[in-house]
């Protein structure tokens, strides 16, 4: 008896080819559903649903079911291709038709179906997935062993576990989603901010000491009471004798309660101060966020390497790094970057270079400065004075005009982008 597949009836060969395509499609369907299903939702369902609990076990070890599905998919494709090549009068056209059917059914149809109904499909195939994971574990283990041998031959790591999508992969997906209209620009920016969250340091988002409203505990109340009521801050740093000596945080709620009891002029501020939460200015904001949550604090006092007060960071500052500016009814509309036209902008001196580069689509970098004001001071090599208005600074193809200076700080700058002339225009001018 011969094992030549050409001796198998044509109808049976076609059935084998169709079945292999269908089985591969089902494998892709199940695998895609398990990859895209909400793990948090399955985890919540697992307490009451036995099937969801089994699915949760599989999802906790994604490498196992992915290797199993990949093995099955390769197996079904190999079988289908084998019978396609064995068809009578087989030529390249049969192979092209087989691949076209395979891609249409397995890639386009089943993947899109799985993405739209991931939860129901993943639950429906849980038992089947578990069965094949158990049955094929020895084969997968053998193949993994062989792969590891080759990796060692090329001095590569063998203990790498799948940990989900990388940042680059997610950003690539977001780009595609934005181009197709499925993801809005705001959503993309928010997710991008989350990736940058653990890279940013506290001093990059702080309100610098020169902009912090604080009161000296030795000053009489009439010196700061009007500002206290006008600015409507809920928490205010309090120093004693000098700015670097922060002794506490004044909660306005506590102050008003005491003022109601004894009058504004008789409030003992020292008695109602809250302990300040000091952190180094170089602390990562993701760590600071969780620390503030644990300590039930809303404001952190930043200290520089010399022990001096450098600024403050609030919970709102940290959250705004992800969701953008949060304005309330007391916030005045700020115009820190005002666009005149494509080549001219009015900018506040305390605008960070990162924000300016993103907003204006330019590329200014400095190892020493975080703000455009500091950047210009670096270029000048000196601290500007209050008579330096309209002073121009040229850097590369940018002209910076210093519009106002206050207390040795650049407050307002005009940026003019000088467009480079094309070679043809240069030749005409010559």
Automatic annotation (TrEMBL):
Domain CBS: from-to ranges: 206-266, 272-329
SUPFAM superfamilies to which the protein is assigned, alphabetical: CBS-domain pair, FAD-binding/transporter-associated domain-like
Keyword Glycoprotein belongs to the record: no
Residues annotated as transmembrane: 12-34, 71-87, 93-110, 131-151
Gene Ontology, cellular component aspect: plasma membrane
Gene3D superfamilies found in the cross-reference section: 3.30.465.10, CBS-domain
Domain named CNNM transmembrane: residues: 6-187
Family matches, as InterPro entries: CBS_dom, CBS_dom_sf, CNNM, FAD-bd_PCMH-like_sf, FAD-bd_PCMH_sub2, Ion_transp-like_CBS, Transptr-assoc_dom
PROSITE patterns: CBS (PS51371), CNNM (PS51846)
CDD domains per the UniProt record, alphabetical: CBS_pair_CorC_HlyC_assoc (cd04590)
Subcellular location per the Swiss-Prot or TrEMBL entry: Membrane
Gene Ontology MF: a single term: flavin adenine dinucleotide binding
Membrane topology note: Multi-pass membrane protein
Similarity comment: family membership: Belongs to the UPF0053 family.
Protein name: HlyC/CorC family transporter
Organism from which the protein derives: Emergencia timonensis
Lineage: Bacteria, Bacillati, Bacillota, Clostridia, Peptostreptococcales
């Amino acid at each position: 008896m011969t094992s030549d597949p050409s001796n198998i009836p044509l109808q049976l060969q076609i059935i084998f080819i169709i079945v292999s395509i269908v089985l591969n499609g089902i494998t892709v369907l199940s695998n895609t559903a398990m990859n895209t299903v909400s793990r948090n939702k399955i985890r919540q369902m697992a307490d009451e649903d036995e099937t969801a609990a089994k699915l949760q076990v599989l999802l906790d070890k994604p490498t196992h079911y992915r290797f199993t599905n990949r093995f099955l998919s390769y197996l079904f494709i190999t079988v289908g291709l084998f019978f396609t090549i064995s068809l009578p009068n087989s030529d390249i056209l049969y192979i092209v038709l087989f691949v076209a059917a395979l891609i249409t059914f397995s890639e386009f149809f089943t993947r899109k179906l799985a993405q739209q109904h991931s939860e129901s499909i993943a639950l429906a195939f849980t038992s089947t997935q578990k069965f094949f994971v158990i049955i094929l574990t020895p084969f997968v283990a053998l193949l993994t062993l062989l792969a590891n041998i080759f990796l060692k031959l090329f001095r590569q790591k063998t203990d790498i576990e799948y940990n989900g999508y990388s940042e680059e992969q997610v950003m690539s997906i977001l780009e595609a989603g934005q181009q197709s209209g499925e993801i809005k620009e705001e959503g993309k920016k928010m997710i991008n901010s989350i990736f940058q969250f653990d890279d940013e340091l506290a001093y990059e988002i702080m309100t610098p000491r020169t902009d912090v409203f604080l009161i000296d505990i030795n000053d009489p109340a009439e010196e700061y009471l009007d500002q206290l009521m006008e600015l409507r801050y809920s928490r205010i740093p309090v120093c004693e004798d000098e700015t670097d000596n922060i002794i506490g945080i004044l909660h306005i709620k506590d102050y008003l309660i005491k003022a109601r009891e004894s009058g504004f002029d008789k409030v003992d501020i020292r008695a109602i101060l809250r302990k300040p939460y000091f952190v180094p200015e170089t602390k990562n904001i993701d760590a600071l966020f969780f620390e503030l949550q644990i300590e039930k604090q809303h404001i952190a006092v930043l200290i520089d390497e010399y022990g001096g007060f450098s600024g403050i960071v609030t919970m709102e500052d940290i959250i705004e790094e992800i969701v953008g500016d949060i304005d309330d009814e007391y916030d005045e509309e700020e115009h820190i970057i005002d666009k005149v036209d494509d080549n001219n902008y009015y900018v506040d001196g305390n605008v960070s270079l990162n924000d300016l580069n993103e907003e204006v689509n330019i590329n200014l970098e400095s190892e020493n400065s975080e703000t455009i004001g500091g950047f210009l001071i670096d270029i000048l090599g000196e601290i500007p004075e209050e008579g330096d208005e309209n002073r121009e600074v040229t850097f590369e193809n940018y002209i910076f005009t210093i519009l106002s200076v206050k207390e040795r700080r650049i407050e307002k700058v005009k940026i003019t982008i000088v467009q480079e002339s094309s070679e043809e225009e240069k030749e005409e001018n010559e």
